[in-house]
Every structure is written in C-alpha cells, then in structure tokens.
Specification:
Chain lengths: 239, 247
Amino acid sequence: MDKKVYFALCTADAGLAAQLGAQLHRWAEEICLELELVDMPGVPTKADEYAVLLVDDDGAGERAHDALQQLRADGFAGGLVLLTGDDRFAIDGYQCHPDAVVRKPLSADGLRRAVERCFAYWSQGLQWIDLPLQHRRLRVPLYRLYYAEAAGRNTILYRAGEKMQVNCSLSALEQMLPHPPFLRCQKSFVVHLAAVRELAGGKLIMCDGRAISVARGLLRQVQTELAVYRQSNEEEGTR
Amino acid sequence: MILSVAVCDDLDEERLQLCRMLQSYAVRNGIELRLEPLESGQALASVARKGRWDLVLMDIYMPGMSGIEAARRLREVDRECLLIFATTSDEHGIVSYELHASDYLVKPISQAALDAAMDWCLREHRDRFRTIWVRSEWENIEIPLRDIRYIEIKRHTAYICTGDRIIKTPRGMNALEEEIDCADFLRCHRSFLVNMRRIRRMEKRDFVMDNGDLVPIGSSDAAAIRQKFMDWTFLRDRDTEGIFSMF
C-alpha cells in the first residue's frame, strides 16, 4: 500500500476538469490517498497506468462508449466512472460496464459516492501506518479514522462506531499522521477535521457525538484550521 | 451451478417470457435454476432478505410500488444480490447505477441481450457461484464455495463444514486449497482452511464462525494471519463497523 494512484479526467471541458480536479484533491486529502490526476480531452487508447477513468459524455455519445468498449476489450481492468445528465447515455453505458455514473451538473457528494464505488482500484494508494499492538505489529488504514485519544503510554484509535488500543504514545502517532486533515486539539486528542460536526463552547462535537474540549492555547488555531477546511469544502461543493 | 432468481413483473405474459428465456439460458449453460416469479414490487419487498436470491430481474413501471422503490428496499437488506432492470422505461438509467444494477435491458428483450447480461454477471461474479465436487461415502457432492464455513483435516480426511452439514471426503488440505483458490479463503492453521465471509469475529487464538464454531489460528504465523484477515475485512467492508473490533 502507500502507493500513488493515477486518475484520468477525460473531458474536453476545461471548467469541468478544474472542478473535478479540485473536488478529487480535497477528497483524497480527507481520506489520506496518494492521488495524481491527469487531464485529457477524450478517452485514451491505452489506460493501463490509471486506477480510474472519469469520462465525460461531452456530447460524444456512442463514440465514447465505443472507445471504452475497446479499452475493456484490450484488457483495461480499472475503475470507470461516467459523467452525464442523459439517462439514455447511462443505459448504453452498460455495454462497457462502468462502476458508477455521476449525474451532471456535478455535486461533491455524487462524485464522492461514485469514486468510492471504485474502491478496489485505488485502495492501494491509501495511507496505512504500522503500529505496535500487544507484542506484534499491526498495519492500520487511516481511512475513516475519526480521532485518537491518549491513554497513558498507549493510544486509542476511534473510527465509525469502534475503537482499538495500540501500544504507542499519542505524540508518536501524531508524527505519523498527515496534517491536515489531522490536528492536535489538546494534549490528549488528535482529531480528523472532516470528523468534526461543530465547534461550540470551546468543545469539538465529533460525528459520533463525543464532545472533546479544546485546549485554550490551541483554540484559535483549531478555529482557523477548521474554518479554512470547511470553507474550501463548501467552495468545492457549490462550484 | 445453482442459481436462485426472482423475476418481478406485473404483466403475466412478460414475466412468463422472461422466465422462459432464463430457463433457456440455464439449460444451455448447465445451470440448475430456482425461479421465483413475483407480480409486484410490493410482493418482492415483503419477502426480500439477505441471500434469498442470487439475481433479481426487475420491471420498473408496475402498479403500486415501482421497480426502483422495490430495488431500494432490496438493497436495504441485500447489498450483494445481482440486479438487472428489464423495462420499457429509458428514464432511469442514471438511478440504476445508484442501485448497483448489473445491467439495464430495454423491452422488447431479445434472448441474445439476456444471454449477454447473464454471461457478464456470471463471469464478473464467478467466485460467488463457484462450486467444488467432492466424493463422500458413495456419492459425488457439489458444494457451493459460499456454503463452506471451514475445512478441517483429520487423519488424511477433510471435514467440510457447510451451512447445514459436515461432509467427509478423503482429500488433503493442499489439494483442496489449490482447487478452491479463492481470495475469501484463508489458511489459518496447518489443519484448517476458513471462509472469511463466514467469520463473525476474531478472538486471541480463534476465529468465531457465524454458527459459533471456533477455528484456531496457527500460533507460528498468527500475526500474519490476523493482518491478512484485517486487510481482507477492510477491503470488503471498509465502511462498516468491525475492523478494529476484530482485534
């Protein structure tokens, strides 16, 4: 794992490519994925190096499907996402068996759901960390890690509805985590900014409902970083 | 191969025609077909449960609950069942992908179009439908891989624990492991091969299976086995709870 993955954005629409690029970069940062995007005006004739192709219909209709069918016939085994507002184009798309279709105009959520459907193709680019656990080592994905809490010399990791204690200090763990999206908010907690539901009364309310107080000395920094993180997300969502 | 298929269409003639075409495909491909014709989306939604069908053929325009709504209900209980829309509508192409459909056939449907859709489904999901043949006592038995919980070897005999019984066969572990050759199976001990789809949780020295049986984890390679299981769980069920709690 921990390997860069390549996505191809196949569209002649420069504005759409820029929008897709910004949203995908933000998504990749949030889930700790090593992602490189490559723009191209149409479907490439060879695509072996790409984990996922995102193909805009661009009014190309059957030509896009023919090119994709040829790619599949030539052995392209990566993920395929079509971008269209046309139901007929989507139905004809079954000829090349895409993994997902994103409805145009694009929404950030729709795009995320679609690329998440291609998980098997890009998961090798996810960042994992190697941690000690009861006299052995364990590789843990950072994907959907909400926050980490110090527990003496150990640390408790929290993800959706579950937790796990590992035998390393919070400070040592913090060194391994990318910043952003992870942020120290007090001496006992490191949080993922996307897992924060709100900041109220000097406390972070996390998406699992837990309230984590913010150290007074760090409050301004946390406020600023959270605001910057959210603002860029909103901008991408409304573009 | 045994295939359990629901055909949901409100028009008797069209439902019958789809069933005939499926029967024809099954005969030509050596498939034992278990067909369940259903005449409304409501009828399908009311009996849907995880694992009931391998494949559902779904009309969209039906009185009462539409095929799209019925497919949503189906997905709430079964994320893995294959779904093919068979409809006169060409207005639901985009939403069909959100429902994880494998194909979308617009009526009138030719036998060739249905065959192509079935071929792709069975090829793409071949591990799900694979079976092995074993000789047990005086009979040859076909066992779907998904029915196997684990295999234990004792004194040159394999005991294959399936959903409803234990099948004895004079085979060695290496030969069985080679024949099964499926990413869902893990050699977790010198004498055990376990189907990870049937593991409920992992304890310090054992896997706890979905029927409560314990399958031991080999002590010499325990860390690597546990890591393999975690990687597999993460790749398959990344969004669900249970990855950390395995440890």
